[in-house]
Structures
1.
Amino acid sequence: MLTFTPRDRLKLIAGGAAVLLGGCGGGSNSSPPPVTIPPPVPPTSPPAAFIPTAGQFKDSFATNFQVGAAIQTSQLNAESEAAAIVADQFSSITAEFEMKPDIIAPSEGTYNWDPADQLMDFAENNGIAVRGHALVWHVTAPDWMLSGTPDEVKTKLQTYIADVVTRYRGRIYAWDVVNEVITDDDSAADPYRRSNWWAASGGNADYIDWAFEAARTADPGCRLHINDYSTEFAGKRRRLIEVVRDLQNRNIPVDGLGHQMHINVGSTAQQVFDAVDDIENEFMGLEQHITELDISVYSDPGSCFSNQTGCQADYGANIPESIIRDQALLYRDIFEGLKTRMSVNSVTLWGVDDGQSWLNRFPVNRTNAPLLWDREFEAKPALQAILDPNFTP
Ligand code: GLA
């Protein structure tokens, strides 16, 4: 089909007018050729931004899983576009920082509940469920909790967990009881991370048992999870399976496994499905959550994470459209595939909008765009692809 720019149209009309004028006054005997004036073509404008209908994202997966987002209290003010999006489109939230021990219990015997309470109120006022994250994580363990003999440490950890889990009992549907306790070392003799918690337990993984037992006592109805990253890789997954198997064999109350899924545009949906399917095959009845999903626009080598070398150059404001398209297709395939996996009952994105994502600072400072809303809070092709099977990004 021919298309005409406004300039072409003007030329045609002028030309047609000249022929008509010639026909009237030119004195020629032959009849003028018929002139067809094309219909006006509207000026080309960028396609309208996609706007999901009220509740569309969470409703689309309501029979499959909770649709979650990590959020922080600084995003909860009245003008916050992120809060408005979460209230409208998500059925679950996770506190990005506010439910970690360094925030809740900065010093022994002092609790700082306000930030966590604010998030809890926001969730409850908007009919949103809350995932608790995380009771034990080596990065956010306050020094006071780790000092003393293993027995003293056990008492401090169990008191902390009893107090936190009891405070929110019945209001948090799942807690990440332990986060990132598996080693990244593929040649390690045992699967456990050598962390400050390992040391404080007396050079063993007993703290994991203490934590799960205390959480179960404090809230018997809450689902207790072990959460980790890189479960899309077979080695890490094998070690995680070994630990869960051991916990189950000793009747330590673990109900679920969280896959963080910080992946990138070079990852495949099949990697995500392999992670979920392997766990489903190993452990009948263990529920699975995707807990921190984001898709970086950079496919970095391992060295970028270990010593910040070899990282892909910063795209700045010019992230290629092809990358945003690949990201959309990957998001679409992941959500489509997770729908059919019955053990998955919660999928959380690690943030709402690209501007706020931790990946703008990790592993290096660089403009990243790993989420479903952009820096202007407009829905990205990824969200449209997830929600509309006929949409081609
Ligand atoms: C890990 C933690 C999260 C968060 C991210 C980075 O994945 O589990 O709580 O801190 O790192 O933001």
2.
Amino acid sequence: MSDPSQATWTATQEAIAKAESGHWKNINYVEERVPPYTLPELMRFQDGTPVKTPEQWTRRRQEILELFQDQLYGFSPEPPKDMHFETVDIDASAMDGNATRKLIDIHLGKSPGAPVIHLVIFIPNKRTKPAPAFLLICNRDKNNIDPTRAVKSDFWPAEQLVNRDYAAAAFFNGDVAPDKYDGFTTGIHAYLQKPEERKPNSWGTIAAWAWGASRVMDYFETDPDIDDKKCAVTGHSRGGKTALWCGALDQRWALTISNCSGCSGAALARRHFGESLSVIQNAFKHWFCQNYRAYIDKEEDLPFDQHWLVALVAPRAVYISSADEDLWADPRGEWLALLNAAPAWKLLGRNGLDEGTAMPPLNKPLKGDGMAYHIRTGEHNYKVFDWMAHADFADAEFNRNQDA
Ligand code: GCU
């Protein structure tokens, strides 16, 4: 497939040189070396029949979902019947009186050893209605989501979200499952299933973290201070892959945001640009189900590409963001996955993005109907610029100006 966009962003020579001097060798960071490729058709059932109506899309969506469950992330279990929420603390004068801080423990079961998600939420005090919320799946040090606010990190600008009348919520992904390969002998995997009973399509760690975010949505549905119809799930890098899978699966999220998610997140695999399926699965094999290993060095054999994953979010809102120096994550591949998912929005009555739309230039968020993208100056990270652009899009999507 040729790139339909007239590129307005291109990687700088400095960024390419820096990427090439990195740890991994034989990785392509040069656009001209992307091989010709054909993306699997989104709007055709696996048997070749075209998908032409919203009703057919409902069935197609299920088909795509099952492929990603079976071949990439693994199947996740139902929520445990005995999970429950415990309000650990409520502080109505947090953030100098601007917010109410709630600390909620989500017990993922009653048996000994049940993992607990320690959720922190800051809810704006200045509001007359339930607050729309952003949930960060935090894949970095817990200090980044410090409930005391002694540490304030750009990775989670909670004060700025609260100032914009959003509730800021976050949890540490390690509360659900550790970020290491241990044979799935710990965390939620071991709690719900004996490691020896695992199948080639049993859930990996990204699926477990995404499942954890859905348990937070279960909680949001019970909290009258949160407008659960206007909630965004977001994450960066491995957290961005997780947020995308969560928003794809769980239709309760009104907005799905994926920042610098790269390989096995938003980036198209067939471009062979940046991180490969070989590198990611050798370094992080716990992230995926075992079946995914069949595609190592065989990206062309994948039954899907990542634009199908993005399309699972339709017609709800999606925002993909990239960083200029983050060639490992293939910014253009992330953009193209978004653009090639647009037919799903069109079929479901939203404009999405028009075919052939050009990748926007640096620092100029592009907002379509239900779909948005930006590429920011700088490194692989989640920055205030990203958050504020995401909040601008949420404002528009949630019609905040109309119902403020
Ligand atoms: C590694 C990995 C990426 C991942 C990133 C992160 O670089 O190769 O796939 O996105 O870590 O989570 O920061």
3.
Amino acid sequence: MKKKFINATIYKHDHASEILVEDGKFVAIGNNVGEADETIDLQGRLVLPPYVDSHLHLDYYFTGQDDKIKNESGTLFEAIDLWNDYKKGTTKEEMKERIRRAVHDVASYGTQFIRAQTDCTDPNLTGIKAALEVRDELKDNITIQVVAFPQNGMYSYNEEGKSGRDLVEEALQLGADCVGGIPHNEWSSEEGKESVKEIVRLAIKYNKLIDVHCDETDDVQSRFVEILNAEVMKQGYGKSTTASHTCSFGSVDDSYAFRMMGLFRKSGINFVACPTENLFLQGRQDTYPKRRGLTRVKEFVDHDINVAFGQDSIVDLWYPAGSGNLMNILDNGLHATQLMREQDFPRNFDLITYNGAKLMQIEDRYGLDEGKPANFIVLDAPNPFEAQRRRVECLASIRNGEYLFHKKSPAYETELDINRQTK
Ligand code: FE2
């Protein structure tokens, strides 16, 4: 059956307004695309490839509303300690249910691709097993990459005779897609450095992607991204590697930063920034001026270094809010990183679409191109600028040519009379 979407504003296809879909694939994107069995009039609305959440902890979803635990200081490090105790009482079925609810929430805003940071510092690997099972169970409707993420450290964690490093390897053997790490949370910088080298060794051994929580601190001495970049450059593994957060890179001096950006560009390494979470978590030891805690997103964009945004947390011990709506993340990110120049608005959606797909290395099956799976979303705006300015809703999410959901645009006209007298 052929389906035709007409009167569309198609992201980065300036002169096309129609999409023809057959057997779950884009058959044509252009004008006068031919006859179809069904025609859907989008009335000028914006079509984007689906949102990609490049960094999200599905296994922590809503743990922040459990009365048994409270992060009193609001810092990242207290959250890590609290989580270590809490997770011991969680079963695989409970974890699977939590992950399913998180995915459902996130998908309802137009996300179809998630890189799921999943804690593996647990001798039973409960979270990893749950995430892998949910990944496979939901794969037709959502694409999830599972990162074997040692939240409590590769070398700082050791329980029941298993180190964080051993558990990362076990998770990879079970089928995790990416090697994670957290060098700034190891007990010494020496162990942090060793963890980075081990991450790269494991990725090459098991042919996996790399995604490291890297320098998520304001401490300018935390420069593990330099080591990670050098290690992957030596191995020709930069494009398969992502440095998440790199908050301290927003605080280092310019001479160091600009030298490093030349090296990042050379290696092809990717970055993810999490605007809402790091605005909330960082700068906690600052009085005023208080740092924003974000990495140099605008400079990465300007230097052709791939960077994407992620939600990171939804109501967990690290961050008390969040919905999974990447429009909200984009809006916060654009303000915090000043990506509001004339040239930015037409391409800003890349930060929550194409750039994430690039670091996930799914470009062969992602995007608005003929021959690829017909996955796309429809926003309630006539162009990218209006969509960002008004932070509009995602009205429909289409996967392999079929609706995951579609919502009605408000059925009534807004009547606003600012001169109305109150009686
Ligand atoms: Fe994270």
4.
Amino acid sequence: MRIARSGRHHTSGQRRQRRASRQWIWRFAMKPSISVLGTGRMGSALARALLRAGYRTTVWNRTKEKAEPLAALGATVAPTVRQAIDAAEIVIVNVSDYAATAALLRAGDVAPGLRGKLIVELTSGTPEGARETSQWVAAQGARYIDGAILATPDFIGTDAGTILLSGALAPFTANENVFRALGGNVQHIGSDEGLANALDSAVLALMWGALFGGLHAIAVSKAEDIDLGELGRQWKATAPVIEGLVADLIKRTGAGRFASDAETLSSISPHYGAFQHLKELMEARSIDRTVVDGYDAIFRRAIASGHLHDDFAALSQFTGKA
Ligand code: NAP
């Protein structure tokens, strides 16, 4: 038993209790309070990650039933947007689009409550949408960070969760722990608020390239009676090759190395030859060619301009500004 400074004796149980209450104060009082507006699939995942990390979290959702399961995890469900904003220092918005964000934040009774808050817009949108929202938020006396989530909800709160943030650096640095709770791979990528959404769209273009390619591969496999399990196995085997080609394309385009050289993996010529086989097969099997006809048009423009034997990267000169 120790003698406390007050002269009173503290039992080990009392000391434990004091330690626990100090930890509680540290865990909650030292951390900013956060509200999440929008608890769809992604917003719910964000709120769950914040709760797991010990943040006092308030949630609001237009359809209240979708927010209620979060109460069992410790969240406070706010009945109105204004009450959610009043409850927090940081307001994370994750609704379907920026028009929905505007409808929520610009409502007459809500906008005056934003003064002094940090608004973190994690809804997907355009660079212009982010810049415009940032200006409007600043005019309300609040700070703003825009973000793009490059992950599905199951990645949120994990080390592999990628979230790009852009805007002023100071509110990011001051709240880095909050952002890290949402994803281990959170990155502040620049001061232009539109940057996160711009890079998001670029990465999504890569993703849809692969997903629509997947749809074509499935259509061809089905038409030719190829077992989809076999297609899956071959995808696994060739994915590193394709990944290497995309990385090389980005690198060569960045360096402007369009002419074939000793490091060229494949010029346009063999690509176009193999592409003809795919087109012929699709035609023979009446598979929809809407997308591949677009590829064909790009190939043709480049070849007509004399690039048949250039590196595949030369095509990038035909996919920029129309
Ligand atoms: P979701 O499950 O469909 O949820 C949409 C959310 O937006 C719901 O909370 C919905 O409220 C709310 N909402 C829509 N219109 C509204 C309005 N006018 N006023 C108020 N609330 C409104 O979609 P999600 O998957 O969570 O996606 C949310 C955002 O995260 C999107 O911008 C999406 O692009 C982005 N994101 C999602 C993923 C993903 O894998 N899911 C990945 C990256 C980024 P109700 O419940 O009342 O309808």
